[in-house]
Amino acid sequence: MADAADTALYDQIGTGYSLGRRTDPRWMAAILDALGTARVIANVGAGTGSYEPGDRRLLALEPSTKMIRQRPHDASPAVRALAESLPLRDHAVDVALAVLTVHHWTNWRAGLAELRRIAPRQVVLAYDTHRHTEFWLVREYIPEIADVELTRPSADDIANELAADSVTPLPLPWDFTDSVLPAHWRRPAAYLDPQVRRTCSALAQADPDAVERGVRRLTRDLHSGRWHARHQDLLKLDQWDAGFRLIVSRS
Ligand SMILES: C[S@@+](CC[C@H](N)C(=O)[O-])C[C@H]1O[C@@H](n2cnc3c(N)ncnc32)[C@H](O)[C@@H]1O
User: Whole-prediction pTM value?
Assistant: First the structure.
């Protein structure tokens, strides 16, 4: 059973998660490719089940009841559990999947050791925390987010710990549908919407005064045309590498 203190963040910010954090089909395709022919999968830190294939046996493991309650009615079964202590026997499943969750784990190395214990193969989607701090929203408007980001394990740390076989960049298309922090890199007005900010943990965890100050500055720059003048190069791109990496390991 998950400890209540560890689930606190998503029990607070998880409301409305399934509305803003919608499965992006391009990332889904990359994850399916990485899962290959695996028939039995454990999805650790499964949340609302955004990247779960519907055609395999899958067990979702997730500490937050608020997240579990938002899983679709036809989703695979979910059990409350922390990555650091998974209620599964050794090599119980073919693949341990962990999508955008390792950076939340209290003891991420212990959680990765659990992934290796329960499965001979691990598929982890994580991100380069340094690259996130270079994202314009962080660098120019809410630099306080860097304080949160730089305490989190980066994709390289995770790949090293897992002795990864492959690390594949997953760029963000301009019309990405899953509202991760840099999802709206080419649609800056999205960050003016409080619901968008609520479903992203780095924004939800940052000092609210700092976020408000940054959003006020961004509003001014969008009205004056300053943001567009400064980011003309981004406006020409269809996709951008925000640092997301798909890590595959066979232990
Ligand atoms: C950003 S959400 C990602 C959810 C889902 N994997 C997805 O891609 O939509 C992060 C999830 O990690 C979960 N989480 C936080 N700490 C955890 C831990 N120690 N062990 C397992 N999951 C954890 C949260 O409750 C939340 O559901």
Answer: 0.94
